[in-house]
Give the backbone structure.
Amino acid sequence: MNNFRLSVPATAKRGELIAIRLIIQHPMETGFRLDAAGKAYPKNVIHDIGCRYNGVEVMRMELSSGIAANPYLEFFARADASGEIVIDWRDDVGDKGQAHAAITVS
Amino acid sequence: MKQKLSGTIPRRLFLKGAAAMAVANAVPLQAQTSRFEADITPLLNALSGGKPIVPGRVQMEIPLLVENGQAVALRVSVPDAAAGSVKSIHVFAPRNPRANVANFFFGSASGKPEIITRVRLGGTQTLQAVAAFTDGSFASASAPVEVTSSACLDLSSE
């Protein structure tokens, strides 16, 4: 589950609002879909995503099957200091993923 | 006059019964995808702890009409909120099998209480977004969406 794209501006002015955009390749299987034999595909969604900026929490998200496949998320952080933005996620089968981006604040 | 043997089922009646059974079998599958808007009041009460949820302040942007419920762009924000005053935003879709679509919690490094994502919709319904403020109050917004084709149709059963 390592196919994702994270977009964070490489540079920002101190105090500027920056958009963090993330898209993760994931089926977000609802558990209601049936295969040809009439058996339901087991539910598997990314249920937890956390974003930290230099260790400080930006967002924590609890998603359900109501979020579209290949979840796209955009949210905002205040650029206070140069450093790293780290996003972690986890799905129902226990697969974990992590995305990093460095930002230089002037 | 020729009489039918008792105990045998006339062919026409048998076919009718078989067709009815097929329909009956199909019903639970449809029911699962929730054909009506569920009452989300218990979910809202659990969220607010019985405190009033005041309509307003929260802004929700979603298309009025979508052809397909598989991926609908949604933006929820609290534009007039002071920095750090919004604890979380919760999105509800009453007609989805799981009405609580997502919960977003804002940390201290958050820039503004706004989130953009794409949701699945199980049919025409009125979405609701609730914002929880750090002072313990709650505000909400609702937006009607007309969905031509639900995200809950099971392609393999068509």
About this structure: The helical segments of chain B are 11-32, 41-48. Residues 4 and 60 of chain B are 67 Å apart (CA to CA). The first strand of chain B starts at residue 53 and ends at 55.
